[in-house]
Amino acid sequence: MAGRALLLRVGCDLVHAEIVSAQEDWREGHRRFVESTATSRADALHAQLEVVSDELRRRLGGRYELRDLVAWYRSEDTWARHAVADRAATSGWQRDLAYVIDAAFHLAGRTATDYTP
Fold first, then answer.
1. Which residues fall within 8 angstroms of residue 73, CB to CB, at 6 or more apart?
2. Closest Cα partner for 75 from 12, 13, 22, 15?
3. Largest CB tally within 10 Å, which of 26, 63, 76, 91?
């Protein structure tokens, strides 16, 4: 029984570390997004953010936790890239996509049921 409890604790610690790491990525991406919206690309960036955010909300459904976001974050490159390419592609959109995605996850994270500021 002690071995099982230790495994559960280690698993919980790993999940927590993964969430904290992802949140750091998301905060940094959001910061870069905000900085970039002070340029002539602001409208295009906001459109891309809206597309990724809409697609993320669709995938998450109603209520969700941070670990649910992390699970979608692992596969974001595929679905987010396709969504932006289909609905909000502009010249050079690929170079901005990483921090647009991180900004979308940052904003979604703030509405997770287990979010704490």
1. 22, 105
2. 22
3. 26
In a domain, 24, yes or no: yes
Are 32 and 108 a contacting pair, CB within 8 Å?
A: no
Q: What is the pLDDT at residue 8?
A: 43
Q: Tokens at residue 91, please? A: 């010249």
- For residue range 38-66, list pLDDT tens digits in order: 989 999 999 999 999 999 999 999 899 99
User: Which tokens hold the place of 102?
Assistant: 């991180």
By the 10 Å C-beta count (0-12 exposed, 13-18 middle, 19+ buried), 105 is classed as: buried
The closest of 50, 42, 36 to 99, measured between CA atoms, is: 36
Quote the pTM value. 0.86
Containing 88, the helix (H) or strand (E) segment is none
Show the tokens assigned to 31: 């910061």
Q: Is 22 in contact with 70 (CB distance < 8 Å)?
A: yes
Which residue range(s) make up the domain with 89? 2-109
Tell me the mean pLDDT in the region 82-111: 94
Cα dihedral: 85, 23, 27, 112 (round 10): 80
